[in-house]
Design brief:
Layout (H helix, E strand, L loop, with lengths): L2 H25 L27 H22 L5 H21 L4 H21 L4 H18 L9
Length: 158
């Protein structure tokens, strides 16, 4: 990847992370004045129903799920290589950047999605560090939560 494309990708991932961290509290109108902060934000259903999704979100999340599923046996057996974790982290970051750029959800659904995205990005970052297996598990957990709270026909828990 040339340096310009690398910088664009890094900027997209940084933007996605910033939106994931700041978005839920801002979208929900929460502030420190009301005794809430982003650390207290939790996934919730839309009046008892799963949140609606759009095609770009479903595509990106399906791609992340497929990448994790491909390596899940090696991860569980603690046999995944550093190269596998790095590739998986890059895939997660790339797909999150795609989702952030293309997904257009209503404000409330978007705020909930940012909670999932924050977990995906944190997991991807951990996969590049000293605890890659824990990072992959965090990504898998975020994917399962996505399926629990978002309407995605055919979605299967990992």
């Amino acid at each position: 990847m040339d340096p310009i494309n690398r910088k664009i990708k890094q900027a997209a991932v940084a933007l996605a992370f910033a939106l994931a961290v700041a978005g839920p509290a801002a979208a929900a109108g929460e502030s420190h004045e009301h005794g809430h902060d982003a650390g207290e934000a939790k996934l919730v259903l839309d009046h008892g129903k799963k949140w609606q999704t759009d095609a770009p979100l479903r595509k990106g999340m399906s791609n992340i799920r497929a990448a994790v599923a491909k390596d899940v046996k090696a991860i569980h057996a603690n046999k995944a290589t550093e190269k596998q974790y790095e590739a998986l982290a890059a895939k997660v970051n790339g797909e999150v950047a795609y989702i952030v750029q293309n997904c257009k959800l209503p404000e409330d659904a978007d705020a909930q999605l940012h909670l999932v995205i924050a977990e995906l990005l944190a997991g991807a970052e951990a996969m590049k560090g000293e605890h890659p297996r824990e990072g992959a598990e965090q990504v898998a957990k975020a994917l399962n939560q996505y399926g629990q709270f978002f309407s995605h026909p055919g979605w299967k828990k990992l």
